[in-house]
Write a sequence for this structure.
């Protein structure tokens, strides 16, 4: 909402005129945030009001005029060269940009010869001052202009003013006009509101046509008023009105239309003027549209309406889309001489819905959508009528036809002082509250522990005790609220450990950098993993109204965004990347949920994933590339951070489509598959723009048990004995299988099993490899004898040879 | 040769030989050899008259001691030489360090954990809720019905007519109040989504929500908690300014400004010369919200606040574009 400082001051009676900065501060303190302040005349300087005292043609150029101007009655004249065709006769005032003046665009004027005659500056046209596009001639001030000679041009143009951009709260329709903002300013600064002049006595002609107003539904339209104005002469508005409208961002059109806008900005009441000669029935009907009804709005567009839209009708014919836009056929034109002036109030919800559905957001629909005080209608009608008479030569014909079926009796709100003090935490007394509320034009009765408060009709947002408490507090000033700390009456209680944070902290400690990426992504990126249709992750939840295709679907895996980050880092030369993300992915709940509706909320399991590209951090020179065992190690770090010292089983897998079929492992804990690690499938990473190999893991942390507190195990008191065994076996037998066979023996003395060597050589025979394993034997009760250890070891070796199978070397 | 002369000879020969040994191994061999020679010589002791035995015994022990001393001396010399050699080593300590694993928690994670820690000192515990939320929890229960103009304040991503990406963490308030009786004191950090994208707005960002509900909770309590938070977070005595504002789910409602942490309030570019920077919204829980959550608003009052973690991190760490948080650019991630 744009307001002009001069306009606000006009509506306030203040002891001392505040500066615009003081005013802005006062409004902010009261709760109207000032988003911006613009000096309307800030675009130029050094331009003054000058009077033409003589003119003669330039001796060397037909189109140039030598103009004598003065900036002081009786002062010496200065000769300025001017190229405009409209140099006025002596006595009229023009705007003279003197030497040193700066103009919009940063131009500074210097004396320069024009066809041999040096001109001390220039006389300005509209476009040169950034006021418009008109360059047909210089600005000539109206004959009755009263600005002093030599005064800054801003004064004559109504530009010595500030425009304040106010962020009006969504519940405060009342501050969408200067009057409402002035009410706030007066409340904070203890001023008195000065309502604009509404007196019509000298403009009214009795008699004339009547109009019947028929409101079908008083909830949709609590009030509708209309009056006739006749004898109108359509023409441009005077500069003062036009300048104010421009100042608040509205293009002046003609005196009648401008008045409706002017009063809307002044009082907050949108108005509409119909050309009365286009109306035929004498009945204005306010009723809902029927589905499919068609109506041509004044922008010439034919609209298709629905039942929720509210129509203004001349008899049965639609003439306006209530509160949103007028109709083409009843629009005020150059030829209009009689208007029917509408001043009404409509249900905010209806106006918002219609404006949103048709994308017709106007100054009127903005205000009706926030709620316009029905009490304003008559006042605004009188104000506009008076201005139309003054500016457009109109006469008011007859009375105001006013249907007001939705009149509300004022509400009285009981406000309990102890409650006020409790909610505010401030020891306020009844007198302070009454004072604050009276300044806002609330009516207050009672002085004891209960006040009866009636807000002004404009303040429909205040209906409850707590609303009144806020009004009191904001006028008293939030800065007078002390700061206290609430007493804790009960211990905060327990909360389970956070899986995500446990993994984040462990992965960072292990050397990975944590990334956080968006919860949504493009459909292509989501599909890049090549997941099978049977996989829940292949059916992402779609966003109905993304701003761009990058927000089309919710992520079902952390990997696509992480791989895209690898590509992004590579694109600016960073090829060594080791990052992890721990966050939610979003899965449709249950099988067979229809594509277009997610009736239930999604599942949001928390996953962890990492990507490793390029080399490990090195001390000197290259330290070697990341490989699959780094990915496996980080996966184990994440699992153990959440689940504690659990047994993690690894199995080779070819069934993860986004991992290399020969370099992929499945991780399980307690019999549940919790995730995968491996080399990212070359085709997948290429789809995401990654050239080099990437190793990765991804884990569903919600599938992990939460670690119980670790329990201390006895420190071994007796030494253990290690025995090695070297095996010759088929390359296809994985190390994990050897561990399984050893575990299956169930030998209690086995304390640790380590693979010391995994050796492959053609000399070992086709498809064969050699492995050197070391097994540690220990008893918690005594030192084992060699014979006992040998016996246990031989038993295990025999099982390995038989079950793998393998040869002992 | 009598036994005494024999012992003298062994002693002299042994000490000289051990001192001249070429290696520790030779010295050990010589030590063993003369030890055995001494032992052989000692066997002759039994043939001596009993009166001479004690004196000869002493003489033999002296030879033995000399042998051991020579051997120990030799070993000691070796140790000293080795220690000297070890101390003579010189390493170029200006070579780069071998990189220890050094990962980085995301700046937003660090800020979140710290914020949670600070609020926990005042008894707030973490609560959470889904990012994919119902329209009811996100709006209706928070006194923002479907046609309320405040819906325009938060441009919403819809997944279906009834399901949205939450636009704020406030639905966690609702979920908590529906499942837990007062007193309640929670903080809820989490990702939220709005249809907004420019240098200061990201379509996904992170909020931290706070809620306290109990008998006698006041607007003044809200102020105290916020002041504690900003002072601890910025490690400075900073004050907080509450400015009247409108959020449908709080009344009285406030915009929360804090004293500019950069200039201390004298005015700078960061605070646009005002000395204050906006960090969030807050207020006293609206009775309508209590009604939706089945909490007796006559008995209980509460306050709620919400802040953007990106903004807090930006103010403290000078991050000048919100997009850096979400791009996975290691040049950014590794700075914190
Ligand atoms: Zn500052």
């Amino acid at each position: 909402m744009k307001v002009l400082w001069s306009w606000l001051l006009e509506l306030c009676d203040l002891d001392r005129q505040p500066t615009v900065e003081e005013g802005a501060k006062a409004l902010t303190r009261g709760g109207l945030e000032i988003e911006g302040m613009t000096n309307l005349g800030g675009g130029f300087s050094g331009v003054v009001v000058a009077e033409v005292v003589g003119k003669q043609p330039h001796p060397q150029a037909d189109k140039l005029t030598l103009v004598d101007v003065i900036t002081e009655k009786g002062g010496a004249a200065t000769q300025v060269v001017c190229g405009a065709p409209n140099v006025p006769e002596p006595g009229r005032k023009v705007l003279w940009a003197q030497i040193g003046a700066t103009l919009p665009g940063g131009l500074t004027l210097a004396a320069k010869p024009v066809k041999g005659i040096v001109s001390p500056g220039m006389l300005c046209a509209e476009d040169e001052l950034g006021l418009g596009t008109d360059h047909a001639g210089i600005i000539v001030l109206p004959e009755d202009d009263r600005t002093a000679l030599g005064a800054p041009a801003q004064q004559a143009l109504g530009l010595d003013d500030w425009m304040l951009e106010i962020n009006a709260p969504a519940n405060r329709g009342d501050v969408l006009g200067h009057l409402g903002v002035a009410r706030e300013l007066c409340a904070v600064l203890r001023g008195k509101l000065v309502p604009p002049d509404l007196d019509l006595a000298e403009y009214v002609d009795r008699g004339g046509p009547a109009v019947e107003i028929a409101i079908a539904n008083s909830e949709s339209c609590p009030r509708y008023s209309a009056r006739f104005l006749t004898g109108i002469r359509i023409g441009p508005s005077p500069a003062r009105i036009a300048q104010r409208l421009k100042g608040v961002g509205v293009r002046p059109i003609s005196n009648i239309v401008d008045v409706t806008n002017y009063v809307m900005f002044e009082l907050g009441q949108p108005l509409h003027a119909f050309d009365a000669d286009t109306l035929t029935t004498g009945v204005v009907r306010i009723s809902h549209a029927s589905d499919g009804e068609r109506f041509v709005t004044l922008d010439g567009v034919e609209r298709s309406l629905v039942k929720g839209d509210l129509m203004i009708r001349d008899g049965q014919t639609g003439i306006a889309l209530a509160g949103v836009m007028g109709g083409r056929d009843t629009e005020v034109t150059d030829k209009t001489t009689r208007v029917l002036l509408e001043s009404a109030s409509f249900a905010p919800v209806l106006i918002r819905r219609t404006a949103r559905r048709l994308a017709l957001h106007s100054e009127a629909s903005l205000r009706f959508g926030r709620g316009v005080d029905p009490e304003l209608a008559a006042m605004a009608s009188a104000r506009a009528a008076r201005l139309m008479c003054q500016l457009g030569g109109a006469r008011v014909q007859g009375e105001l036809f006013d249907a007001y079926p939705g009149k509300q009796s004022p509400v009285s709100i009981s406000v309990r002082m102890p409650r006020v003090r409790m909610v505010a935490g401030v020891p306020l007394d009844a007198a302070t509250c009454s004072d604050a509320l009276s300044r806002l034009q609330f009516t207050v009765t009672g002085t004891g522990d209960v006040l009866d408060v009636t807000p002004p009709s404009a303040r429909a947002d205040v209906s409850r005790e707590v609303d009144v408490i806020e009004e009191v507090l904001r006028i008293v000033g939030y800065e007078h609220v002390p700061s206290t700390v609430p007493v804790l009456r009960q211990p905060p209680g327990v909360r389970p450990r956070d899986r995500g944070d446990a993994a984040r902290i462990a992965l960072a400690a292990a050397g990975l950098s944590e990334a956080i990426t968006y919860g949504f992504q493009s459909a292509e990126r989501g599909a890049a993993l090549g997941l099978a249709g049977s996989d829940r992750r292949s059916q992402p939840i779609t966003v109905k109204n993304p701003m761009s295709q990058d927000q089309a679907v919710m992520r079902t895996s952390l990997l696509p965004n992480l791989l895209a980050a690898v590509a992004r880092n590579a694109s600016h030369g960073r090829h060594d990347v080791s990052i992890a993300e721990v966050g939610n992915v979003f899965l449709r709940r249950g099988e067979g949920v229809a594509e277009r509706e997610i009736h239930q909320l999604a599942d949001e399991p928390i996953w962890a994933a990492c990507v490793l590209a390029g080399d490990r951090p090195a001390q000197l020179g290259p330290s070697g590339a990341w490989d699959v065992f780094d990915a496996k190690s980080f996966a184990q770090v994440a699992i153990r951070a959440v689940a504690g010292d659990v047994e993690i089983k690894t199995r080779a897998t070819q069934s993860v489509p986004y991992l290399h079929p020969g370099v992929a492992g499945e991780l399980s804990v307690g019999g549940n598959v919790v995730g995968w690690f491996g080399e990212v499938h070359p085709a997948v990473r290429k789809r995401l723009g990654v050239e080099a190999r990437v190793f990765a893991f991804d884990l569903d942390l919600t599938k992990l048990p939460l670690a119980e507190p670790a329990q201390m195990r006895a420190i071994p008191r007796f030494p253990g004995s290690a025995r090695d065994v070297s095996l010759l076996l088929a390359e296809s037998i994985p190390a994990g299988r050897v561990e399984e066979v050893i575990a299956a023996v169930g030998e209690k003395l086995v304390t640790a099993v380590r693979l010391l060597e995994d050796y492959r050589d053609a000399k070992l025979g086709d498809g064969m490899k050699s492995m050197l394993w070391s097994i540690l034997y220990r008893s918690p009760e005594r030192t084992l004898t060699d014979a006992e250890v040998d016996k246990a070891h031989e038993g295990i070796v025999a099982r390995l040879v038989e079950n793998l199978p393998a040869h002992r070397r | 040769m009598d036994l005494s002369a024999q012992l003298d000879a062994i002693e002299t020969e042994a000490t000289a030989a051990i001192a001249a040994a070429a290696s520790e191994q030779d010295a050990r061999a010589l030590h063993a050899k003369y030890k055995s020679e001494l032992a052989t010589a000692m066997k002759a002791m039994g043939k001596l008259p009993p009166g001479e035995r004690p004196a000869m015994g002493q003489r033999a022990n002296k030879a033995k001691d000399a042998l051991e001393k020579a051997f120990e001396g030799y070993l000691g010399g070796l140790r000293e030489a080795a220690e000297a050699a070890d101390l003579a080593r010189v390493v170029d300590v200006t070579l780069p360090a071998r990189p220890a694993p050094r990962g980085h928690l995301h700046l937003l994670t660090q800020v979140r954990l710290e914020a949670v820690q600070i609020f926990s000192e005042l008894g707030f515990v973490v609560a959470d809720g889904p990012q994919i939320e119902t329209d009811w929890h996100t709006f209706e229960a928070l006194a923002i019905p479907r046609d309320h103009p405040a819906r325009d304040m938060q441009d919403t991503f819809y997944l279906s007519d009834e399901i949205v990406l939450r636009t704020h963490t406030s639905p966690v308030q609702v979920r908590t109040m529906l499942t837990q009786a007062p007193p309640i004191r929670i903080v809820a950090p989490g990702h939220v989504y709005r249809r907004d994208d420019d240098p200061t707005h990201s379509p996904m960002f992170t909020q931290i929500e706070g809620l306290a509900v109990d008998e006698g909770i006041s607007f003044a309590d809200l102020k105290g908690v916020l002041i504690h938070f900003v002072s601890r977070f910025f490690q400075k005595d900073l004050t907080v300014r509450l400015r009247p504002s409108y959020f449908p789910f709080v009344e009285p409602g406030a915009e929360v400004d804090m004293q500019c942490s950069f200039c201390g309030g004298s005015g700078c570019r960061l605070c646009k010369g005002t000395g204050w920077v906006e960090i969030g919204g807050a207020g006293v829980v609206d009775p309508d919200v209590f009604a939706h959550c089945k909490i007796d608003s006559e008995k209980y009052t509460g306050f709620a606040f919400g802040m953007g973690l990106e903004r807090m991190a930006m103010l403290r760490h000078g991050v000048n574009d919100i997009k850096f948080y979400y791009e996975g650019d290691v040049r950014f991630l590794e700075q914190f």
In short: Chain A has a mean pLDDT of 92. The first helix of chain A runs from residue 5 to 10. The two ends of chain A are 89 Å apart (CA to CA).
